[in-house]
Amino acid sequence: MEISGTVAVVTGGGAGIGAAIARAIVAHGGSVVVADLNADRVAAVADSINGSASSTVAASVAGDVSDPAVIDRIIATAEEQFGPVDLYVANAGTTAGMGLDSDDAAWQTALDVNVLAHVRAARALVPGWVERGRGYFLSTASAAGLLTQIGSVTYSVSKHAAVGFAEWLSVTYGDKGIAVSCLCPMGVNTELLNAGFETDRDGASVAASAVTSAGNVLEPDDVADVVIEALGDERFLILPHPEVLKMYQHKGSDYGRWISGMQRYQRALTES
Question: What is stated as this protein's family in its record (predicted)?
Answer without folding.
Answer: Belongs to the short-chain dehydrogenases/reductases (SDR) family.
